[in-house]
Fold this protein.
Amino acid sequence: MDPVISVLLAEDERLIRESLAALLALETDLEVVAQAATGTEAISAARDHRPDVAVLDLQMPEADGITAARTITARDSGCRTLIVTSHGLPGHLKRALEAGVKGFVPKTVSAAQLATVIRTVHTGNRYIDPSLAADAIAAGDSPLSAREADILALAADGATVSEIAHRATLAPGTVRNYLSQAVAKLGAANRHSAAHIARLRGWI
């Protein structure tokens, strides 16, 4: 008999999370050992339960799935991470792979397909949904550096330069430089337009 794969399931919508947990419980080789509604909860649950695979929604409160995956992987290399998303933008896939994510699939997959992907990433192999991979290749890479993307993401909610500087622990002048570089690279009129462009393309 194959060993049971322990699974952490993180999804902020309770109905979806509990329904998916019930469907995965029908698989004899899978056991959902923990559930989480936020990225922070997912990180804590991974530490406490040490699952074999963490299934993470891309967009969650407090910390998104990619941030949670990066933290979980850094802390426990034995836990494989898998992102499920309804917003499969090319930039998201690139960021996920850089964070060490082993699987990336849309929420349109069936529970049976998801179970198969969980088994695949548990063995150390990677599974990327073919249509998402094709979109990422067609879109090309982000022109933004990692730091420019981080600063632009902080600007996306309308924060002032001073607020961004405080949150990023940088001098205001340094923040302005990063924002100016991002605006120029994206051919935008200002930092708010640049943030909008980058978000549409999944670069932040």
About this structure: The chain has a mean pLDDT of 87.
